[in-house]
């Protein structure tokens, strides 16, 4: 059907529009699902780090005073980083993933406009087919009919083209703005998180660097000396001051010395008596 | 059996040692599996970001020149961050997880020493039991036997205690050093990664901020005008210069104009002709 020939540029226009919208829909859809996955993986990393915080506190409670303080500070710092990571996840949801989700509505609207344009175009084709039939019936009027049909198509097309141009222009402008906005927000969110992490980890590094091993060892040796001391001292004491004392009495005296040693050991008891009550919520660690 | 009474402090010693080793084994084991999980989650986050890099390049290839350049730079920056993340994962493996794994060997050795001590102790108990029997057989020698057994035990114990003290002291010292070293390394690795990420994202932010939307829109409108223009121009040309030209010829002329328009559009063709060859490896994006 030769009369549809000059319509080809309009096919091209529709194709360019459809491609533009389809590409945008595809890419924004992929970005949406990928960034949602990225946020989920970030949340899982946060969960693992949260477990590490608990274990650090757990370990701190069984350690020498200096190490206990260092591990507690490290746990607090690590928890802070996870709070920032949580904020990162929430911001990604709000400022990156949700806008990408909403973008679907925008492409739908543009699709509807393209569809409307296609209907208009199909009506024009039908009208041209009518003119073609008319032309075949009265070949003498051929030139007049052809010219009038072309002129009519030109007027219709320029009107529709105007609308199309506006639609695609608005769509493209919005798309470019959205791309810039969404990825600027993504980069800003990441930047803020990493900057906070640097701040917190710098402080954590200082804490660990200033850890006083010697002081802890002295403390440990003093406590161990208490435990060993009571043993070393006992046989001498019992044999010299009361050689005939029954074993049960010697044992009782020994218990008293051990009680004193335990009291002197103070917090260290928690190592033997189980975790401190404030640990709480010991979840399974292998729940991969 | 009363003669075992005075051995209680040694039970306490063993318990303290066993607790110290068991606590260390438990905590180091937990740290090891948690930090391995942390490294794995980090690697998965890197994988997602790597996919995002591909999609950004993919999208860039279908975009206007300014956006294309911006997205490519962003993709490069994001890829850089993933390289640093990869280095983070490798360093965690090497400097944190592997030492924690090796720590198991250390606790085993200490356990073996405790076991050895227990054997020595059991032998002493047996000897004391023999003495007890001897004492029951000849009650008159009770005092002599008791004193000699206590003295013997004292000598044995002070020797074993010395060894025990050294073992536990070495173990504790090494454990505290290891704790400090491992967590210092962890914090340093994290610190370096986050600092690098801040550097790269700062640059990425600048890139996106300096994106020139107007220039892209002008470029887009110029190209769209080419597509629309060939339609607007055609009917007038064909109707005025060759009113009687067959439709098929008009169509042919139109094809030439379209070819020129396509050539002028340049790279933009890739939008219609599929992805550029350098994209490669489009993996499934939903492989959670």
What's the topology here?
The structure is a homodimer of 288-residue chains.
Chain A lengths: L7 H53 L4 H73 L4 H68 L3 H29 L5 H19 L4 H4 L15
Explain this structure.
2 copies of one chain form a homodimer. Chain A has 288 residues and is an all-alpha fold. Chain A starts with 7 loop residues before the first helix and ends in a 15-residue tail after the last helix. Mean pLDDT of chain A is 75; it is low at 1-9 and 230-288. Chain A has helices spanning 8-60, 65-137, 142-209, 213-241, 247-265, 270-273. Chain A has 6 helices and no strands. The longest helix of chain A has 73 residues, at 65-137. In chain A, helix 1 packs antiparallel against helix 2 and helix 2 runs antiparallel to helix 3 (142-209). Chains A and B meet through helix 1, helix 2, helix 3, helix 4 and helix 5 of A and helix 1, helix 2, helix 3, helix 4 and helix 5 of B. Chains A, B: Residues 251-262 have a biased composition (Polar residues). Chains A, B: Its main location: cytoplasm. Chains A, B: It comes from Catagonus wagneri (Chacoan peccary). Chains A, B: Keywords: Cell projection, Cilium biogenesis/degradation, Cytoplasm, Cytoskeleton. Chains A, B: Residues 251-288 are annotated as: Disordered.
